[in-house]
Structure formats: C-alpha cells, structure tokens
Design goal:
By secondary structure, the protein is α+β, with helices and mostly antiparallel strands. The protein has one domain: RRM (RNA recognition motif) domain (Alpha-Beta Plaits), CATH 3.30.70. Helices cover 23% and strands 36% of the residues. It has helices spanning 3-6, 14-19, 35-46; strands at 7-10, 24-29, 50-58, 62-65, 68-71, 75-82. Strands 1-2-6-3 form a 4-stranded antiparallel β-sheet. The radius of gyration is 15 Å and the shape is globular.
Amino acid sequence: MKHYDIIRKPVLSEKSYSEIANKKYVFEVAVNANKIEIKEAIEAVFGVKVQKVNTVNVSGKLKRQGRTQGFTAKRKKAIVQLTADSKAIEIFENLA
C-alpha cells in the first residue's frame, strides 16, 4: 500500500481538538493497515517523528430508511502521538 492509501482523512472532533496541544492527532486510516504501516505513512507524508500509534476499530452503525435497513461502513481510527522534539503537523496548526 502507498502512504496516501493508508491515511484517509483527519478526524476533527472536540476530543481530537483537545489533544492537539499534547501532540496527539487522530486520523481515519485504511482498515487493513497495521500500526507500523501507519507510523511510516505519517512520518513520510508529514515529515514528523512518531512516538506511538494507537488504533481503534469502529463498527458501522445501523441505519434505516423506511422498511429497509443496513449498516454504515466500518472504519479504523489511529491516534498518533508525536515525539516531544518533533514539529507539529501543519494542517492542524490553525485549529488549536
């Protein structure tokens, strides 16, 4: 997998905003990516040093429309902790 295939998009929520000050960033990543691949992709794309990666598998929610029902797609989130001497990720600088 390529680095840009692993990182899908940043997760922008109240909880993720509060962790930016601690150099923790949340991304939606490919479901089949592991922690090592996520770490390498973040370091290559943003040019930062990653200390630790935590992942969370999020199940799809049950949605209904009339009589039919189904589940939204499952996804995977990665919480990335940068090292203390690493620079911040640019796309989050205006948000903190």
